[in-house]
Amino acid sequence: MFERIVVGVDGSEGGLEALKLAIGLQKIHDSELLLLSVYLEHTMWEASVSYVNTELTGSTHSALQEYAREVARQCKEFAQAQGVEKVRSFYMGGGPARTIVKFCEDHDAQLIVLGSRGISASERYMLGSVSHKVTNTSTRPVLIV
Amino acid sequence: MFERIVVGVDGSEGGLEALKLAIGLQKIHDSELLLLSVYLEHTMWEASVSYVNTELTGSTHSALQEYAREVARQCKEFAQAQGVEKVRSFYMGGGPARTIVKFCEDHDAQLIVLGSRGISASERYMLGSVSHKVTNTSTRPVLIV
Fold first, then answer.
1. Which stretches make up the UspA domain (chains A, B) (predicted)?
2. Are B101 and B134 in contact (CB under 8 A)?
3. Closest residue, chain B, to A25 (C-alpha)
4. For chain B, what is the HEC assignment?
């Protein structure tokens, strides 16, 4: 039923809960898990119409990228430690919601699993902006944990 | 994994897609499906602070209730025709999102499945207001189809 499941991870508790549920689904549906960690990266166009410096300082960009890579790696290890063999991890730069949705389409996944709140979420909101936007724009089913 | 799955149905295409996916899950997880159709009903308090007539004309209220009951009945039959035995259907009055979330908690369900858009949705929006609100307020996982 769910051949490929995309799991959005960002190092937060919400992301971990999403991963745990996805692992449970993987075992029952024999799915392949595609773990995706997105680090914020502005396009040249976005930067040009905002006040964002087009060139993040090398160290900031590298730090974000390295963090995302580390999150992806640790999540993959976590899944493998739970006995999951069919798991791959990715880290990509871009707008998080947009990147997740496109990734799901590019990999023809049948499901996206996300935490209701991620690493940037305020305590006030039960549903983070990325999860909200992915649910709003995805043409595939989205499971909010 | 999903012992009880609540499926929100309202007679729309979105609700039917949610039901179909839930049936697929039911077969794999051997879940019990709880189909819920909510007809809009204002509480006395809500009506008192709005311009809604506290007493819907008898025929309007009955029509809404009857429609919800019919949707619930037909969805249950549809599920049974697909070979699902563990299915119950319900129809209730209230605010749809709130009612769905409370119903899930009262029945200790592990998952809510909803169409991304229901019967009231405008073509402009990819995510209906009920699905949005349920995803935002539910403490249990919500699968938006």
1. 1-145
2. yes
3. B1
4. CCCEEEEECCCCHHHHHHHHHHHHHHHHHCCEEEEEEEEECCCHHHHHCCCCCCCCCHHHHHHHHHHHHHHHHHHHHHHHHCCCCCEEEEEEEECHHHHHHHHHHHCCCCEEEECCCCCCCCCCCCCCHHHHHHHHHCCCCEEEC
By CA distance, what is A24's nearest residue in B? B1
> What homologous superfamily is domain A4-144 in, according to CATH?
HUPs (3.40.50.620)
- pLDDT tens digits, one per residue of A70-105: 999 999 999 999 999 999 999 999 999 999 999 999
Of A28, A135, A144, the CB nearest to B29: A28
Structure tokens at A104: 């799901």
